[in-house]
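Let's practice the habit of predicting before peeking. Look at the sequence and jot down your guess about where helices and strands might fall. Then scroll down.
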Amino acid sequence: MSIFGFRKTQTVAPEEALPGRDTPLEVPERHAVLGTPLKPPYPEGSDAAEFALGCFWAEERAFWQVPGVITTAVGYEGGFTPNPTYEEVCTGRTGHAETVRVVFDPATVTYEQLLKVFWESHDPTQGMRQGNDVGTQYRSAIFYKGGEQKAVADKSAADFGKKLAEAGYGAITTEIVPAGEFYFAEDYHQQYLHKVPGGYCPDHSTGVSCPVGLNLG
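Done guessing? Here is the structure:
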C-alpha cells in the first residue's frame, strides 16, 4: 500500500505497518528545563505515566510545569513500528500516537492529579484528531501501567465524561490501554517549546473542569 494513499484516520493493521529499525533514536541525557535524566534509571520511589493528547510539543510543557514531576519526555507509543521516526509516525503507518512520558514523585503529585492535567489539556471527544491536527497519531490515549492506574483512569474517564456531557460535548473517545513500548522521539522534539519559544502550541482544551484530583492552578 502506498504511504501517500493510506487513510491517516484509520488505524493501521500490524501487517501493513512500516518496518522501523533496531537502533533507538538519539536523545539528550538531561531534560532541557528540569535538568533531570530523560531516560531510566529514574529516582528510587518515582512512578511513571504515559499520555497521548494531540501534538506533544505543548502537552509536554503542561506536565513539566506540575510540582512533583521529576522529568518528562516525548515519544511514540501504541503502535507496531520499532523506533519510528517522526516522519514515519506522521504517515499513519506505524500505529503510534504522539505520547508524553511523565515521571513523578507520588508523594508530591498523584496519578489522579496528572489525569486532571491530561483531561483539561485537550478535547478527548474528537477521535483521530485534535482540531486541525488530523491522524491516528493525534488520538487521545491513556497508557496505564498496572491495575491501579487502570482503575483510577477508568473512574476519571467516567467522571469527566459526565462533566463533558453536561457541557454539551459528545462521548469520550480516549483509549485506556496497557502501556507498551515507549520509543523516544528525536532530540529536537524534546522540550520543544523551551527550545523554540513561541513555537506551534495549539490549545484544544474544552474549558471543562475535571472533578478528579486537586486544582493545580
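How did you do? The beta strands are 47-53, 69-77, 97-104, 129-130, 133-134, 140-144, 175-178, 183-184.
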